[in-house]
Amino acid sequence: MRARPRSSWARLLLGLAAGILLAAGAAWAAGPGVLSARDLYLPRSLPPPARACLDCHRRTTPALVADWASGAHARAGVSCQQCHMSEENGPGVSRRHFAQYQGNGLPGSRPQNRVAVTAVVTPRACGRCHPDQVRQFAASPHARARLRALHPPRGPAGLPSPLAWSERDCAGCHGSEVILHPDGSVAAGWPNQGMGRLNPDGSRGICYACHPRHRLAKADARRPRACRRCHAVPHGAQWQVYRSSAHGVLWAGGGKGWSWQRSPLAWDAAAGYRAPTCASCHLSGVSGRLLPDHDVSQRLSWHLAAPTPRRRRHWRRARTVMQAVCRQCHAAERVRRHYTRLDRTVAHFTRAYLAPAGELARRLQAAGRLEGEAARAWFRLWHRFGPRLRMGAAMAAPDYTWWQGYYPAKGAWLTLRRAAAASASLPPQP
User: Fold this and answer.
1) Nearest Cα to 193, choosing from 180, 181, 205, 185?
2) Is pLDDT above 50 for 34?
3) How far is the C-alpha of 71 from the C-alpha of 216, rounded, in Å?
4) What is the reported pLDDT for 46?
């Protein structure tokens, strides 16, 4: 018996389905591609000079325009012009940019589309639309990071070499000064994504250290890896401590499914995430309880990464604010006991190890004997073991409190004691 022939509609639908599957398979195998110029969305509401910028840059730097087109700025009609605009003779204006696009035949070369621009986008530019965030950031330790890099610890607590504070090393996180020639070209300090960068217009800091350009998305700044770039250092190891804590384990296991793009007033433990990240503890708000704040020190009650820990000013108020974040998931009594343990750990390490070891280091230095293994032991004790121990206690990562803190600190302490005993039996240095 012959099979009944399929209708033309059935054959058409089967052909379409097969074509879609083949195209999807080819796209998956090829991986993500680069958007072509005609694929990029340009809002119709943009003024002609802004469209001229994009018409040129989607040919010359298409990846940057693609980042911008996928972000909230593009959806709001905020273009290159609003962020990069400069006065005709203002600090940082790029005269080379004028020379580059004049006469190239693109819309930007037309006189009516001529715009003074700068490559150095500063917090002052962001403050045109985000004044509260810029004001809060300007009061934060992030904005003063360069000042800290200019004044490293001295004496027995000093770093081993002044070269450690060069522009290539510490300035990568702390920032350095951007210096320009009279024609607007860069003389020194560029490229520069250091958090405490000193800008040509006198402002301090940089917003896209946390909100990578040109997408400038909230989600990118909320993810813990945004902080890892600067906070995976040996002495504080905040990134490593967070990753080994219970909060970090929850983020590593399920963070991909969290609602990273929610509004700042709705991104909290009830809706946005299951466990806090760096941003949710130190910057983000809590619905009905706490507003976001770009000053990362407003919720810190201790200077835990300092050579000698100390209370911050207004530490009681700061602790109350931070505890509002904790109480999204934890009972008030549990939160109180956590902070009691933290305070006891900080006090005990200072009393049992840091203070007596510092006294031995001062004696050895006065006798000219703080060298070799003794100098390394003292440096590691105050610069690495102490901050790691305190960070572990603050973020509930017991492996860092013990195995990265107390345990090696004991060895450093014994090394200093042996050196001090040997120094006492040796004649004084000539």
Assistant:
1) 205
2) no
3) 7
4) 80
- What are the residue ranges of CATH 1.20.850.10 in the chain? 215-423
CB 108 within 8 A of CB 53: yes
Q: What is the pTM of this model?
A: 0.80
Token pair belonging to 297? 């020190």
Phi, psi for residue 177 in degrees, rounded to 5: -90, 135
CATH number, span 215-423: 1.20.850.10
Residue 351 Rama label (left phi>0; alpha psi -120 to 50; beta)? alpha
Residues 268-327 pLDDT 10s: 998 899 999 999 999 999 988 899 999 999 999 999 988 899 999 899 999 999 999 999
